[in-house]
Amino acid sequence: MTIGTVGxxxxxxxCFNAFIAKKxxxxxxxxxxxxxxxxxxxxxxxxxxxxIVFNVNEPIVSLHSLEAVAKEARAAGIPMGCxxxxxxxxxxxxxxxxxxxxxxxxxxxxxPRFGALYLGIPSIEPVLRTIRKLAPTNHLEITTPxxxxxxxxxxxxxxxxxxxxxxxxxxxxxxxxxEHEMKDRPYPGIREVNRLLETARQRxxxxxxxxxxxxxxxxxRCPGCGRVVMERFSLGCGGDKLSDFxxxxxxxxxxxxxxxxxxxxxxxNIREAAS
Length: 275
Hints:
Structural class: alpha/beta
Number of helices: 9
Number of strands: 10
CATH class of the largest domain: Alpha Beta
Strand content: 15-25%
CATH topology of the largest domain: TIM Barrel
Distance between the termini: 13 Å
Order of helices and strands: EHHHEHEHEHHEHEHEEEE
CATH architecture of the largest domain: Alpha-Beta Barrel
CATH superfamily of the largest domain: Aldolase class I
Number of domains: 2
Radius of gyration: 19 Å
Strand order of the largest sheet: 1-2-3-4-5-6-7
Helix content: 25-40%
Shape: globular
């Protein structure tokens, strides 16, 4: 179940979710549901959801509420995950790690100039610190939205950073379709960005290139032998659909190498399951 509220700690000039993320909570009150922590978990159970994911806005702005939801979710046996910018104090990062079983942190750029001009923050270091802190204890993935001519030149350095933390962290490179204050900017070229990722694929075994229909780079391949162990079909902005799960448990069926997974394969028809 995907859920969220309003508010963010960044001021991204290209935000495609600005109509929600940047809205004043007081102005949004009349158009939002008021749900208790127990209501959220009951809804997930009623809908048959395997997990609860907070990804509409920045979850760090609602940490105390999320702690309450996590308590109810743990009691019901439902794991929680989130998409976050990771811009947190060490204390807040620790709470994030205790609330969520799995996290996707946005590594949007590295340079102070990019942070100041496009994110509205003085430094990206708190994000890097959060990644380093949570990578050993939680299932962590990283997403980088690419704006051609703005942050694409930093992709190699970002790959090197991820490798220094843990080379098996899955890295989702997202072809950004800018909105908000940058909606007139041209969309990134697929071939050009993919060429920049060739070096990263030599460093990192789990590199995915998303957000356009028919992407060839959304399958999971075994780092040992290169065999496809999870096959997906790219739906563009709607994400990817899992079309085949070929692992034996959490291992490659060809060479037996362990594949980094969280949870277990569900008993229902995997061909009908969205990733």
